[in-house]
Amino acid sequence: MRTFLNILFKTSTTFDDLDDQFEDNLEANANLLFMLVGMVSGIDLFFKDHQYFKEYPIIIVALGFILVSAGFSLVIGRYLTTYILYAIGKLIKGKSKIIDMRVVAAYSAIPILLKLPVILYFGFTGNILVTGSISYWILSSFYLVLWVWTLKIMLQGVMKFQEFGFVKGIINISPFLLLGIMTFLLI
User: Fold this and answer.
1) Which of 136, 150, 178, 181 is most buried as measured by Cβ atoms within 10 A of its Cβ?
2) Does residue 133 have a pLDDT over 80?
3) Longest CA–CA separation in the chain, Å
4) pLDDT at 129 over 70
């Protein structure tokens, strides 16, 4: 648990500590983190879309959203994100192993877990964010900070495990940087 919190503020030191752990422990922790991030996303989706499933029991709908999102996040994080980071790194002469990039992908997603209190507040109070309102802009700014924080952790992890400098690190995480920019521009 301490590692999960240390990654937020002592990123380089935490990645050094993770480099010394057994691969089985790293795999288990990465899977757990991917599923937790998926669960947070599932809770968010539930609060946004539960009104479309009024004919079903609400607990079944909530569990469905959470479980499907957790599974989807596990597959996307464990395979797609990991192999994108690994493949781009290898193209530009990186030195990491697949497990290293899986750890980077998983631990860089920890700031996303900080969305949970906000999601729960808006979900249980029933407040609807109106585009252009002050609460909308505050929440968007908060999510932007979390996204930048996620990229910072990912960049530091890629630089450490791939043995890259800053520029190659940015190139390695560029798909996620571009995806985030497109997301914020479209919303």
Assistant:
1) 150
2) no
3) 55
4) no
